[in-house]
Amino acid sequence: MKVVKKIGYVLVLIGGLNWGLVGFFGFDLVATLLGDMSGLSRAVYALVGLSALVMIFAHKSCCKSGACASCSVQQTPSAE
Q: Under 8 Å CB-to-CB from 36, ≥6 apart: which residues?
């Protein structure tokens, strides 16, 4: 699962940088490199979206386990 998370993280970074370019400069790097809505560019967009979902669920499970270092969620110990 670590490999999936790392690949997902890289794809989310690519998507975020691409959207930053679109928002600030009106320049879509993925479309420029792979063709405007070509099969390959659509595949990249789909993988970026799936990666975002993987990152959401990975973060959610991380927070539930109490091992989350990236947010301020603190797991309270249960009284036994």
A: 28
